[in-house]
Amino acid sequence: MITRMEGRILTVLSEDSRAVQMELDEEDASSLGNIYIGKVKNIAKNINSAFVEFGDRQMAYYSLSDNPVHNFVSANHQGSLKVGDDIIIQISRDAVKSKDPVATSNLSFTGRYCVLTCGKNLITFSSKISSQPWKQMIRQRLEPYKEDSFGVIVRTNAWDASPEMILEELELLKSQFHKVMEAGAYRTGGSLIFKAPLPYIGHLRDTYSQSMEEILTDDPEMFRQMKEYLSVYQKEDLEKLRLYSDPMVSLSKVYQLEKAVEEALSRHVWLRSGGYLVIDPTESMTVIDVNTGKYSGRKNLHDTIMKINLEAAQEISRQIRLRNLSGIIVVDFIDMESDEDKKLLLKTLSAYCLRDPVKTTVVDITKLNLVEITRKKIRRPFYEQAGRRR
To answer: Measured between alpha carbons, how far is 323 from 285 in angstroms, rounded to an integer?
Structure first.
């Protein structure tokens, strides 16, 4: 569902009538995915990084360790990066709290089925695709279309697509890539040379095709833009698009979207068993505490603890995705004595986290019975999008 809420655009992905992912975007505030001519303003040798100005005098952090090769605008540039150089950069992470957005020279162009990337010139596959014969077949089909200047990452959605659909999309991405590199030769510093799709279009593109049954909006203009996008890039999903137009009851009321937003911002999350979670994002990590709460089952203590912990594992995986929590996440489950119980809990939690499109890793359980999780940072957490402080 995609609608407007308090002057912003709310995108909600629901599964089994429950929200599992929400994004609250300004009309056009994010620079994530945009490509600019950036000007190097400062080089901090002590952290092996540079700070690059882009757009309307915005500053981005640019790691020299992660970007050993630079896209210099001048074809005659010699030597290492220095202050005053113009380089082509892409914003790879949004600004988070007091931290500047992150820029990269490893340009990427994302489609529904694959990503064209300048970081490596290999053909690789999503870790969620396990069929070796299928990967070998697709690699052979893609190889003649790949160039030395870029690589290709085949996304999970490609599993449901024909090789012809993947190749057609790759040709579109190649055209975008060459236009950007050509534009860099004659555009001035700070210029935007590639604009990423509108955020809600990006969310539409990145949703697993298998799980998308309907695309619903109550905004005629967004309906028009999505129809244009789907007609070119996702023809197979065009028939799923629907404009909600009941004048008596709003889309937000029908699906209780205001309530869903408040729940995603609440510190406490109740479990069906009567237990509950306490979720506390901090500056360095997010801490999640599991409590027995109102649970009053008749089973013995061991079974009670396992029931609540396993239910909590499922809900924690949902809350991490729903709130877009990232970085280090530490979960304090109810203490368990048995190593077998701990293994079962980690296995269950890992299985649920695999459903997350953003890379999420269940690391281990410590001697203090704390479970460590890491999740890749891409966009701001939902509470920051909503303007709430922790």
So the answer is: 14
